[in-house]
Request: fold
Amino acid sequence: GTRARKGTIAADTSRYPFGTVMYIPGYGYGRVEDRGSAIKGDHIDLFFKSHKAATRWGKQTKRVVIWLP
Reply:
């Protein structure tokens, strides 16, 4: 029910429930507000304003700080 914007994270909500806050180095803070059927386990999907920005970020492995609700 929220509009996607910088900081919106899609995640496996069985692992990271809605409202989970994460700090991703190089991206900043975000909150789990969406889920995707292809997103499983510890993988997350970050919102970017454009496809070009998302492609520049690419697929990365990072240690994130997580605050569960």
Observations:
- The chain has a mean pLDDT of 95.
- Helices lie at 51-57.
- The CA atoms of residues 33 and 47 lie 11 Å apart.
- The first strand starts at residue 8 and ends at 11.
